[in-house]
Every structure is written in C-alpha cells, then in structure tokens.
Amino acid sequence: MKKLNLPLFSILMLLLCSLPFQTIMSGNVPLKPDMDPNATKGTYQRAPVSIALDVTQNETNITLNFLYPAGVAQVTLENENGDVVYQEAVNTYSTLDAAIDTQNLDGGVYTLKISYGSTNLVGEFEL
C-alpha cells in the first residue's frame, strides 16, 4: 500500500473545504465610475432597472399597464399645490390595467406617484 503525502493531502483538503465559503463571503461589486464621463469621483453608476409598468396619457384618462403582477400598487395623483386629487390601491394579481379619469380635473401640472414593493415611481404631466 502506498503512503499518502500528509502535507500535500492536508493542503488539498483545506482548499476543497474553503471553496464553498468563497461565494458566501462575496459581496456586491459597484460598477466603475468611468462608465459615465460626467460622473464625479466617488459616484457609481447603477445597472439599468426594468420597470414593470407602462403609463400612457390621452385626452380623457391616464392608463397604467403593468407588464407583470407586482403586488398591490398604491397610485396617487397630486395637483400643483400638492393636494391629493386621486388615490387608489391596484391589486396587480387580479388586474394588470388601471385607468385614472382626468376629464373632471382642472388644467395644470400634476404629479403621478406609483409605489409597489420597494419601487417608488414619480412622474409629471400637464393637462
């Protein structure tokens, strides 16, 4: 029977046992700041995020089309003064579409706020 080389065997076993911990101990790596030529030192660019929502406006309403279920979405519409003129909770598990009737709203700039999960979206439009 051949004798095992104990130091070599010990090193191999140590390496094999430590490999699974390499992924557990790895962290997030920020993207390089030079991806945006206008970025200042110390800032990092984030990867693009896809939004599960398509918002369209016509003369009579604003239509929200969720591309996939995202849970309960809180939809708020505020006028120029910051007053809430519309608020609704949309359960995207039961429907992916919602419409906000804008026919009875006064002209001006409005802010649309949509939040679902940890995502908060804000947009402005004019009537």
Give your account of this protein's structure:
The chain has 127 residues and is α+β, with helices and mostly antiparallel strands. It has a domain at 53-126: Sandwich (Immunoglobulin-like). 15% of the residues lie in helices and 37% in strands. The chain has one helix spanning 6-24, and strands at residues 53-57, 61-66, 72-78, 84-91, 97-101, 109-116, 119-126. The strands form two sheets. A four-stranded antiparallel sheet has the order 4-3-6-7, with no helix packed on it. A hairpin with a 3-residue loop joins strand 1 and strand 2 (61-66). It is rod-shaped and about 90 Å long. The termini are far apart. Mean pLDDT is 74; it is low at 21-36.
Would you count the extended β strands for me? 7
Taking the sheet with the most strands, its summary is: 4 strands, antiparallel
Helical stretch tally: 1
Query: CATH architecture of the domain at 53-126, please?
Result: Sandwich
Report strand %.
35-45%
| Helicity range | 10-25%
CATH topology-level fold name of the domain at 53-126: Immunoglobulin-like
Widest sheet: strand order?
A: 4-3-6-7
Distance between the termini: 89 Å
Oligomer: single chain
Unreliable stretches:
21-36
Radius of gyration: 26 Å
